[in-house]
Amino acid sequence: MTTTLLGRGHGARHAVGSVNTTEFLVTAAISASFFFALGGVRWTDILGLIIGGVIAAPIAAFAVSITRPRLLMGVIGCFVVSLSLWQIAVAIDPQMTFLASLRRGVG
């Protein structure tokens, strides 16, 4: 959406701000629907997400300011792929017996 707005001649700040505001409102509506569908809200989980975001935002801003974009995207891509592989492994083998067998074979 941002590229469409930029392509139509809107200013960068206007385009990015509009898209971010829209994404926030859509996410808030989806989250509210999800929590109401669950029948209850676990405020400790929500508070944990908020605190984590407040802590992570300045660290991310600093990392972006000092790191080359290509390197940063590579690191983030590797991190996301690693998390995905871990989740797939846990879904396939919840008891992680495969890792335990590897440890027995090595040690």
Explained architecture:
- By secondary structure, the chain is mainly α.
- 85% of the residues lie in helices and 0% in strands.
- The chain is built from 5 helices and no strands.
- It has helices spanning 2-7, 12-38, 43-66, 69-92, 97-106.
- It is extended and about 60 Å long.
- The protein starts with a helix and ends with a helix.
Give the helices and strands, then pairings.
Layout: H1 2-7, H2 12-38, H3 43-66, H4 69-92, H5 97-106
Strand content: under 5%
Main sheet makeup: none
Order of helices and strands: HHHHH
Q: What structural category do the secondary elements indicate? A: mainly alpha
Q: End-to-end distance, in Å?
A: 53 Å
Shape: extended
Number of helices: 5
- Rg over CA atoms, rounded to whole Å, is 20 Å
Poorly predicted sequence stretches spanning 5 or more consecutive residues? none
- Please tally the β strands and state the result: 0
Helix percentage: over 70%
Mean pLDDT: 81
